[in-house]
Amino acid sequence: MIGSSGAKAPPLASPLVRAIARNWSAAFLLLMLVVFSLATPNFLSITNAQNVVHLQTIGFLLAAAETFVIITGGIDLSIGFVMGLCSVSAAKLMQLLMARGLPDATTVVLASVVVLLLSLLPGLVNGIVITRFKVPPFIATLGMWGIANGIALKLCDGFPVAGLPDLLPRVGNGYLLYVLPGNFLSFFDKPPDFPDARIRELWRLIPFSLPFIVAVLGFLAFRLSRTAFGRHTYAIGGSMDASIRAGIDVDRHLVKVYVLSSFLAGIAGVFNVFQTGIGNYTTFNASYEFFAVAAVVIGGASLTGGKGRVFGSAVGVLVLAFLENGLAISGVQPFYRYIAVGVLLVFAVVVDKLFPDLL
After folding, report:
1. pTM of the model
2. Is the dihedral of CA 295, 301, 305, 309 positive or negative?
3. Helix (H, G, I), strand (E, B), or coil: what is residue 73?
C-alpha cells in the first residue's frame, strides 16, 4: 500500500498483530488494572471501581458526542461549555419553578426537558455555519465555545447555582442495591431508620448512572453500526466527495451529527446537576472537550475521519480514568499523570498511522 507521500506503509505482519493493534487500548486497560491492583490493594475494590465509572458518566457522554463528529472528519470544541451552559440553565430554571411553588419532582422534570430541548440549538448553529457557510469545524465550534461560555457566565455571574431540590443528588448519586451483610437487602435507597454510625458497613451496589450510561452508549453504538445514519457517518468521514456522488445529503447529515453532539453535551449538563446538586459553571469546562477527544483517539478513532467506535471511545474514557485514579492512589505526583496521558495520546496516533485500515 502506498501512502500519499509515496512511501510504503508498514506491512501488517499477521492477523494477530492487527487484532492487537486494533484493540490495544482494551489490552492496555486490562494490563493497567492488573498492575495497579498488585501495587495498591484497594484499587480494584467494588467501591473504587464503581466510583471511577460513576464519576466518568459525563466523560462517557462527551466522548460519545465527539465520536460521531470525529468520524465525519470534524471536531466539536464547544461541548464542554455547552455542558456547563446546560447545567447552569437547568439550575436557574429549577430555581424559577420552585419560586412559583411547583413540587420538586415536577420542577426537576420540567426544567430538565426544557434544557434538553434548548441543548439542540448550539449544535444546530454549529451545523449550519459549517455546512452552509463552509466555516471549518474547528473555527465554528470554537466560536460556539466562546458563546456558550459567555452566556453561562452571565447567567450565574461565575458562581454555582445552589438551593435546588434535595432529590437531585439522591437520584444522581443513588444506587440500585443497598446491602448490610447478614441483615437486609434494600432496593433504591437505604432504610429510613438506618443509623449513621453504621454507614461504613453498608454496601452500595450498582449506581443509577451505570445502567443509564450503558443504555445510552448501547443505543448510540447501535445507531452507528447498524443503521443508515451510522453508515452515512462513516462514508462522509471516508470521502465527502464519494458520499455526495452516492446520493447522501452530506450537509443535512452533518447538521444532524452536530445537533446530536450538542444534545449529548446537554444530557451531560443535566446529569451534572443531578450529580452535584448545583448548577456548575467553571472555566475548567474547557478541559472536558480535550479529555473527550483524547478518549476517542485512544479508543481507536482517527482524527482524519472514517474510523471510530462508541465502545472504543468508552474504553478510552476508562483508560484515562483508571490511569488517573491508579496513579493518584499510588501517590504519583500530578505532573507525571499529565505526562502519561500525553504519551498515551501520541501512541494512539502512531498506531493509527502504522495501521490505517483497522476498522
Report:
1. 0.92
2. negative
3. coil
